[in-house]
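Why do we care about 3D structure at all? Because function follows from shape, and shape follows, mostly, from sequence. That is the central idea of this module. The next example makes it concrete: a single protein chain, its amino acid sequence, and then its structure expressed as tokens.
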Amino acid sequence: MSLRTTWMERARRAAIALPVLAAAVVLGGRGAHADDAAEQKAEAKQRCAVRLSISLLGKGATPALLASADPQAEVDAMLKAPEFADRFARFVNSEFNGGPAMAATDDPVYYLGQYVVTHAKPWSDLFIGPYALTANATGMTVSDDANGVGYFRSPSWMRRYAGNEPAGYMLSASFRILSNTTGLTLTPSVGQPGDDRTATGREQQPCKSCHFDSWYALDKFARLLPQRKGQGATMTFTPPTEGPQPLLGKTVATDKDLLETLVASDAWRFNQCHLVFKFLYGRGENQCEAPTFDKCADALANGGTIQAAVAAVAKAPGFCE
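And the structure:
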């Protein structure tokens, strides 16, 4: 066989082998892509597990959660954990108060919030439930009390937001009730120095709009609350004496009637779901998240728990993306 023939034969054989090699390369590439996709999917599930555990429980994901084929399917179980009750109660306490308290007994929101979550009570119980909160050696004890209205009749809460209005009207408490239930925010303003110190002065503009004319008329709300007597250690409270007030499109007779009206409103559900988004995302809701937000509100509409509202958001497809 000549050298020329040898090289020609080698070329012919190489031409035959090339398609086989190419096929092998393609098949190898497909296998690599499949492996990459599987690895990326596994990593996404692990990220989801970590995000859920940190958001709901404040700690890293367990090996079992990291290995779960669907971490969001574990949300309901995570919401039953004591870590969630503690974490959410602390979050709500920080949102509903103006700043840190001097003592644990000054945080009835935390203790009642933890109780409501732990016992899977309707979230509305935090605001209108028949409970009493009393100080103990380490914090506060929650007990049944037909005269209770959430945490708003807790003595420590009343003292904290009694304010300093000369006649004893609890304007600060009025605002805090509205803020905690509906998310109301206000910017204080003064027309002339001293005008806002008395009810007569507040009946003049620019104070009149917020204190008497608006749906959140602070002075009218305050007339349904106990009246503060004294300051500091000598502070006491007397029952309101000025009768029903025209508020929220109706005549409201007591602070309990007032709070039940607020909790029955769309504004209450909106504000609580706004808090849920802030708890889970560290921010409020976006417009594109409206369907998920609606599910959260629906979960609260019929006496739902805060766990159901949180689950509506944490289980949404977008939460782990």
